[in-house]
C-alpha cells in the first residue's frame, strides 16, 4: 500500500493583486513546527518523497522539512490550486471562491474539469514500477507528502467520498489528510485537522 498525505500550506499573505503570495511570519513558523510532527512519523524521511505545488506558499511550507531531511522537493503542476474561470480577474477571485464554496463540483468549467482530472490521475499514479513518483522504485510501502491547497484537498476528498459538495471540510494550515493507494485505487483514510472558520471571510486568500 502506498500512503499519500495531502498537507495544506501554512498561512499565506492576503493579497488581491499578487497571484503567488508567500507565507506570513506565522505561516513560516507553522512550516518549521511541521518538521517535528513529520519527523516523528517518518524518522529521517525514510521512504518518503516530497511533492509540492509550484506556488510559493506550498513550496515555502515544504522547504524546512526538505532541508531537515536533505531531500529534493519535486514541483508538480498537477497539484496546483484550482484555476479561476476564464474571464475572472485576480481581484475578483475572492468573490468567486466565496460563491464556489457553496456550489457543486459538477459546476466546473471545462478547464477546471481538466485540472481536477489531472490531479486525481496524478495521485492514482503514485504507486509501484513506472510510478509518477521519482523515488518510489517499486516500494509498496512508500509515502508521498504532497504540499498543496485548500481546494486541492477538498476536491480529492469529495471525489473519494463520491460527494459533489465543494467544501467538504476546512483543513487547517499544515493539516495532514491521509489517503491510501492500493492497486490504483485511492481511499480516504483520515481527514486532517479542521480549521475553526468562525468569523472568517471565506473569500480571503487564507482558503486557497
Describe the model.
The chain is of the alpha/beta class and 208 residues long. It has one domain: 3-Layer(aba) Sandwich (Rossmann fold). Strands 3-2-4-1-5-6 form a six-stranded mixed sheet. Strand 5 and strand 6 form a beta hairpin. It starts with a strand and ends in an 18-residue tail after the last strand. About 4% of the residues have low confidence.
Helices and strands in order:
Elements: E1 2-8, H1 25-41, E2 48-52, H2 56-69, E3 73-75, H3 93-100, H4 110-124, E4 143-148, H5 150-161, E5 176-182, E6 185-190
Parallel strand pairs: 1-4, 2-3, 2-4
Antiparallel strand pairs: 1-5, 5-6
Protein traits:
alpha/beta; 208 residues; 6-stranded mixed beta sheet; 6 strands; 16% strand
In short, what is this structure?
The protein is an alpha/beta fold. The chain has helices at residues 25-41, 56-69, 93-100, 110-124, 150-161, and strands at 2-8, 48-52, 73-75, 143-148, 176-182, 185-190.
CATH hierarchy class name: Alpha Beta
Structural class: alpha/beta
Question: What pattern of helices and strands is seen along the backbone?
Answer: EHEHEHHEHEE
Give helix % range. 25-40%
Outline, from the CA principal axes?
A: globular
Could you name the ranges where pLDDT drops below 50 across 5 or more consecutive residues? 198-205
